[in-house]
Structures are given as structure tokens and as C-alpha cells.
Automatic annotation (TrEMBL):
CDD domains: NAT_SF. Residues 1-147 form the N-acetyltransferase domain. One of its GO terms (molecular function) is acyltransferase activity, transferring groups other than amino-acyl groups. PROSITE patterns: GNAT. Gene3D superfamilies: 3.40.630.30. This is Acetyltransferase, gnat family, potentially associated with yqek. Keywords: Transferase. The keyword Cell membrane does not apply. InterPro entries: Acyl_CoA_acyltransferase (IPR016181), GNAT_dom (IPR000182). It comes from hydrocarbon metagenome.
Length: 293
């Protein structure tokens, strides 16, 4: 007998379905959690799951995040598709295709374009819906400033003062890039911090900025910076380097807002797919790390 499926969406207000979603996520993405993010109030009406149920169990799901996007200093409305998956025993039945078709049809008149980040296993899936693969860039500096005794401080978000500082900066931050960037995405940033970067957020008081960074071997990775006023990043770098062994800095954002010097720009296939008429031709960009769903 062919299973019967029922589509539900935008069920943030239903504790019953929210718990079913958490159960589904724990199977599909076992290393991540949505529960703390939800309990702290960051699941807003901009994050919309679209799910298929069989016997009142979520068996396949996708989500959209409604976003304010900046491209070449112009503003757009976009839907970022994410968290696409199907329980193993329900795969190869076209359920993800059904969800994709529903999302694209339902929101095509509400947004200017769609985009998503795909993993290596499904790179051939999304072009079937008209999405095109677009390469991004990483920016590398091999000119390392002398490390200074830092004023940078690692934040502990279990402490109320550090948590409040983080939330305040997120609420008032400026875009880190306007080539392909975003605004008003704190609800996504907090998912990243709670799941991935809790140990990687550092505050530099003199520029009132939080750096999402990590050092690995001889490389400093600066994933993103939250700031309320533009500042001279080159002058701040010596204060955030912790190890004397750093020989290169990788910036995961272009230098159009916080100017810095780099020696190499490397094109990467990050799994970015876009559907819509937007101009990123010959643009050297990287979408903000903590804006990705």
C-alpha cells in the first residue's frame, strides 16, 4: 500500500509539531539541535518549516528562511532553503522533490530569488529545479602583523552580561558585506552560535566588535565580525591573534566594508545554488557565515 502523506508548514506555534520536528532533525542531522534555539526565542516567523507527515510522524522536511539580502548595495527579499532531508526508510519516493516544488511555487511571488547551500551528496538534485551553482571566494592574507598583548576577551554566553552584549551587537550590527550580504538575520546567527561557535566568539572593546574566529595550526580563520560602526580591521588584527605560529589569515568575507589587505583570493565551490535574476557576475563575494541555514 502506498503511504499517505500530509503537508504541514509554518507550525512554530504548535508545540506538538515542533517536538515532532525536533525528533526528525535528530535523525537527519544528529550533530545539531534546534531545541535551545527555539526555547530562547530565536525561532521567529521568518523561519518556516515545510514538512510531510505519515501516520502523524514527520518523514520529510525542508525549511525556508525569509531574508533581507543586499546585492551590490541594493536590497532584495529572498527565501533561503535549508534543512532538506527525508528519513532513510522513506527515501527514493520523490518527497524532497514534492517539498521543493511546493516551496518554489508558494513563494515565487513573495521573494525576488531563492538560494540554498547543498552538501556534496545532492549537488545534482537542485539544478532540476532551475537553481544554478555559483562559486564563492575566500580571501587570504600572508602578511601577519606582530601579535600584541590583546585586549580581546572570549565571551561566555552563560554569563548574563556577555549574553546581553552579544544580543545588543547583533541587534544593531552593520552589514559585513554589501556585495552579497544580509541584514536582520540574528535569528540565524544565534542558531550558529548555540550549535557551532559557542567557543569561538571574542569581544574587542576598543572597536566594540565581536569576532567569530578560530585558530587551527598556522591559520587564523575569521569567519565573521559583528560591529555597529566601521573600524580599521588592519589595526585590530594584532590584538585578536593568540598564537605566535600564525602564518596566514583566512577571511570569510570580502573587504568591501571592513577594508583589509589580502594576497590571495581563492575561488571555492561552497555548494551555493541560486534561482533568480540577480547579478553576481565577476563579483568576488562570500555570503556571511552565520547567515547560512
Amino acid at each position: 500500500m502506498t503511504p499517505k502523506y500530509r503537508l504541514i508548514e509554518n507550525y512554530r506555534g504548535s508545540k506538538n509539531y515542533v517536538n515532532k520536528y525536533f525528533q526528525f532533525i535528530s535523525v537527519i542531522f544528529p550533530s545539531i539541535s534546534f531545541s535551545e534555539w527555539y526555547e530562547k526565542g530565536f525561532w521567529t516567523d521568518k523561519y518556516i518549516p515545510v514538512s510531510l507527515l505519515n501516520d502523524d510522524r514527520i518523514v520529510s522536511s525542508a525549511s525556508i528562511a525569509l531574508m533581507d539580502i543586499i546585492i551590490n548595495d541594493n536590497k532584495y527579499k529572498a527565501a533561503q532553503i535549508g534543512a532538506v532531508g527525508t528519513l532513510p526508510e522513506y527515501r527514493n519516493q520523490g518527497l524532497s522533490r514534492q517539498l521543493m516544488e511546493h516551496i518554489l511555487d508558494r513563494y515565487k511571488e513573495k521573494v525576488d530569488f531563492f538560494f540554498l547551500y547543498a552538501n556534496d551528496m545532492v549537488l545534482n538534485f537542485y539544478p532540476k529545479f532551475g537553481l544554478r551553482n555559483v562559486k564563492e571566494n575566500i580571501f587570504i592574507s600572508e602578511s601577519i602583523p606582530s601579535r600584541e598583548k590583546s585586549g580581546v576577551r572570549k565571551l561566555n554566553i552563560t554569563k548574563s552580561e556577555d549574553y546581553s552584549l552579544l544580543l545588543d551587537l547583533l541587534q544593531n550590527r552593520k552589514p559585513i558585506t554589501k556585495i552579497f550580504g544580509a541584514e536582520n538575520y540574528s535569528f540565524i546567527t544565534m542558531w550558529h552560535i548555540l550549535n557551532l561557535y559557542r567557543e569561538n566568539i571574542f569581544y574587542l572593546e576598543e572597536v566594540n566588535a565581536i569576532f567569530v574566529k578560530k585558530e587551527s595550526g598556522d591559520t587564523l580563520h575569521i569567519l565573521e565580525i559583528f560591529f555597529t560602526e566601521l573600524f580599521e580591521l588592519e589595526k585590530a588584527l594584532p590584538k585578536i591573534i593568540e598564537s605566535d605560529s600564525i602564518k596566514q589569515i583566512k577571511f570569510y568575507f570580502p573587504p568591501d566594508q571592513l577594508n583589509y589587505q589580502f594576497q590571495k583570493r581563492v575561488e571555492e565551490d561552497t555548494g551555493l545554488f541560486i534561482l533568480g535574476n540577480i547579478d553576481l557576475v565577476n563579483k568576488h563575494f562570500r555570503f556571511p557565515t552565520t547567515a547560512i541555514t
